[in-house]
Write a structure and sequence with these properties.
The two termini are 28 Å apart. Helix 7 packs parallel to helix 9, helix 9 packs across helix 12 and helix 13 packs parallel to helix 14. This protein is α/β, with parallel strands linked by helices. 39% of the residues lie in helices and 13% in strands. It has a single domain, classed as Glycosidases (TIM Barrel), CATH 3.20.20. The chain binds 6-O-phosphono-beta-D-glucopyranose. The site of 6-O-phosphono-beta-D-glucopyranose has 15 residues, from loops.
């Protein structure tokens, strides 16, 4: 739909940027912090580890000053569970102290924190005790952690997010500690999905009790699915992907209902995934204030007959186009590439219009305010003569922000936008080779170098976007976009 007039961004729009604790903080064993599943995992990969990352723990004052200079009105960060509860059970006051200092510094600069309670980094001790999110005990342990955050940080924080991308972590189990030996992947997926939905509800209830005026919501990763062709079988495959990957978990969390197609699919294959009436009731009484979603790319789905060999998706670890392994889920859908779109060196397909489609689909289905809590381009950046010319990133962000403005013009209520990432950080699957930040961090995977911060071209560009409340987008400087 074309618009005759484009609506401006709301006056109180949250112009943000995002990070996550284990990807920026470093100091992984300092001041009483315990080991998280991320700390354990990364020591055995070839890319990186969590020990230093971007050293934000020691340099947060300098980093917040840069946020201020960038003009951010909000900053999305996550709280490291193992700073607060090193072993998942015993409180560590030094962890509380760190976040209080960070929040106070942000507020001094008029930057509102948006806090993710869980971003992939639960205590290794809870993984060892009961397989982390596979165990029911996680609901109480996560609620205890969240309650402490509400009590200790409620004076500083108005916006909370519960669990980051509960729908994606079940697709990529290694992101959160992996599937325990002897357990089937599908069994693990549905148990984790269920436990996360219940934990999400319990935490929202707890937030309502302790901080009745705070706003809280879930966060999902949404890659909308296009049919590979207009063959109705492919159209069905795309619907399958949307329903199984995104709408099933979100319907559960936001509407307290289980998608019947998904329930039946598993029932036919001998798995009963129905929640009890009490569980659904709990969820219904703990509804979110908004939905946060992370959007990087769209997907393509094609028909995948039942007799196909199942394959799981695999990240492109090499940073050369063509390395991503598309999944095949027999009877549901198979992934495929999109010939109409450019892609990053890691095969993430760049699709600004897909963002508008995502807004429309989510808003129509749930009618809750939305915010984009991650969006950005992972790329090789080159630090030359003290400068980082990342016009490709400016281009990506500009196109996406313009589509967001069209979504606002469509009538969607959009609360805020948080590009990933504020500064360079340890990519989940690609270390420091693949960078996203407005601020360059001088290090690479094998050498910590100076860890000094440098502003990229995109920093100055986003500064103008924020300062003009998005109006600058309507007069793009051609040179910057060349
Ligand atoms: C999101 C995660 O799904 O993708 C982030 O929430 C992650 O933690 C981001 O960094 C980008 O992925 P990657 O693999 O490029 O770091």
């Amino acid at each position: 739909m074309d618009h005759l007039t484009i609506k401006p961004f709301p006056k109180d729009f949250l112009w943000g940027a995002a990070t996550a604790a284990y990807q920026v903080e470093g100091a992984y064993l300092e001041d009483g912090k315990g080991l998280s599943v991320q700390d354990s995992k990364n020591h055995s990969t070839r890319f990186h580890d969590t020990s230093v990352t971007s050293d934000h723990y020691h340099r947060f004052e300098e980093d917040v000053a840069l946020m201020k200079e960038l003009g951010l009105t909000s900053y999305r960060l996550s709280i490291s569970w193992t700073r607060i509860y090193p072993d998942g059970k015993n409180l560590n006051p030094q962890g509380i102290e760190f976040y209080r200092k960070l929040f106070a510094t942000l507020l001094r600069h008029n930057i509102k924190p948006l806090v993710t309670l869980y971003h992939f980094d639960h205590p290794q001790a809870l993984q060892d005790a009961y397989h982390g999110w596979y165990g029911e005990q996680m609901i109480d342990d996560f609620t205890t952690f969240a309650r402490t955050c509400f009590k200790e940080f409620g004076d500083y924080v108005e916006y909370f997010m519960t669990i980051c991308e509960s729908n994606n972590v079940v697709l990529y189990p290694d992101l959160i500690g992996g599937v325990p030996a002897g357990i089937e992947t599908e069994q693990w997926r549905f148990q984790v999905s269920r436990v996360m939905a219940l934990a999400n509800a319990q935490v929202i209830k707890c937030c309502r009790e302790i901080l009745p005026s705070a706003k809280i919501g879930p966060c999902i990763g949404y890659a909308i699915a296009y049919p590979a062709t207009c063959d109705p079988k492919d159209v069905m495959a795309a619907l399958n992907e949307d329903e199984f990957r995104t709408f099933y978990p979100l319907d559960l969390i936001c509407l307290g209902r289980q998608n019947p197609t998904v329930v039946n699919y598993f029932a036919e294959r001998g798995r009963d995934i129905r929640l009890t009436a009490e569980e659904l009731e709990l969820i219904k009484t703990a509804q979110p204030d908004f939905i946060a979603f992370n959007y990087y790319q769209s997907d393509v789905a094609k028909y995948c007959p039942e007799n196909t060999v199942e394959t799981q998706p695999e990240f492109n670890l090499e940073g050369k186009k063509g390395g991503y392994v598309y999944p095949q889920f027999p009877g549901l859908y198979a992934g495929s590439s999109n010939p109409y779109l450019e892609r990053s060196d890691w095969d993430w397909e760049i699709d600004p219009i897909g963002l508008r489609l995502a807004f429309r689909k989510l808003y129509d289905r749930y009618q809750l305010p939305l915010m984009v809590t991650e969006n950005g381009l992972g790329a090789y950046d080159y630090f030359e003569n003290g400068q980082i010319k990342d016009d490709y990133r400016i281009n990506y962000l500009q196109q996406h922000i313009m589509q967001m403005q069209l979504s606002i013009s469509d009538g969607v209520q959009v609360l805020g936008y948080y590009p990933w990432s504020f500064m360079d950080l340890m990519s989940t699957s690609n270390g420091y080779n693949k960078r996203y930040g407005f601020v360059y961090v001088d290090r690479d995977d094998n050498d910590l170098k100076t860890l000094n911060r440098y502003k990229k071209e995109s920093f100055y560009w986003y500064q103008k976007v924020v300062k003009s409340n998005g109006q600058y987008l309507q007069q793009p400087n051609k040179q910057e976009l060349a």
